[in-house]
Amino acid sequence: MYLRRAMAAADGLRPNTVDEVLKSEWLQQLEGELAETLQVDIPEWKWPEDQELIMPAPVDQVYVFWLCAMIDWAQLDMQLYQIDKAMFDEAHASALAWWRRHNRPRVNEKGARIE
Question: FRET pair for 100, CA 20 to 30 Å: which of 37, 55, 69, 113?
Fold first, then answer.
């Protein structure tokens, strides 16, 4: 998923007046956390240029749920925030599990890592 697509999807679900710069910062925060957890290089942030985010389809909805939760939080809608945060937490766990399944290190027949 691309940065601007994530923002547009969240805006479609949660009409808001939150500045794009702040939404970009929220996504950058999530990208940094994902990169650290997944032990991958933190992508260079190119805002306001559009850029591809770490998590691919089919687990890229994690970005939309994150933005929806943060928009709800910023607008002080705690009821929607709790719902969106729960959806984000589930999507986040699923995305991490998906990543680990699809990016396992190669091992030989003795279980030793192949570089």
Answer: 69
Average pLDDT for 3-13: 97
Work out the mean pLDDT of the chain and round it to a whole number: 92
Q: Output the six-digit token pair for 56.
A: 């691919």
- The whole model's pTM is what? 0.88
CA-wise closest residue to 13 among 56, 59, 77, 92: 77
Cα 24 → chain centroid: 11
88 contacts 26 by C-beta, under 8 angstroms: no
Of 113, 1, 21, 22, the closest CA to residue 64 belongs to: 1
Which residue shows structure tokens 């970009």?
24
AA identity, residue 28: Q
Structure tokens of 77? 């809608």
CA distances from 26 to 7, 63, 81, 103 (A): 10, 10, 15, 26
Write the pLDDT tens digit of every residue in 57-86: 999 999 999 999 999 999 999 999 999 999
